[in-house]
Amino acid sequence: MPGCTLELKIIPNAPRNEIVGWLGPALKVKVHAPALAGRANDELLAFLAGKLGVPRRSVCLLRGDKSRQKVVRIAGLDAYELKSRLTGL
């Protein structure tokens, strides 16, 4: 099954969930949830899954559990498909 990774820069406690744009090689994403007890991570993964049109179980956090710099793996999408879906947002 194809899969790819995505670097992220996360801003917790935002007024709403939104993809801001690219910040170098990382995608900047704002999430509404606070960075407490993994709530921002959970909301981030669910938000990305919804935006990319993949099941929630296809998006997992690889690195950055307690950091604003994160790396996620998206199963079922190759890098080209991921970029094309992000460009359409």
- What is the first-to-last residue Cα distance? 24 Å
| Global mean pLDDT | 94
* SS summary, helix count: 2
| Residues in helix, % | 25-40%
Summarize the helix and strand pattern as letters.
EEEHEEH
Structure description:
The protein has helices at residues 39-52, 79-87; strands at residues 3-11, 18-23, 26-30, 59-63, 69-75. It has a single domain (3-87), classed as YggU-like (Conserved Hypothetical Protein Mth637, Chain: A, 2-Layer Sandwich). The N and C termini lie far apart (24 Å). The chain is of the alpha+beta class and 89 residues long.
Short summary of the structure?
With 89 residues, the chain is α+β, with helices and mostly antiparallel strands. The protein has a single domain (3-87), classed as YggU-like (Conserved Hypothetical Protein Mth637, Chain: A, 2-Layer Sandwich), CATH 3.30.1200.
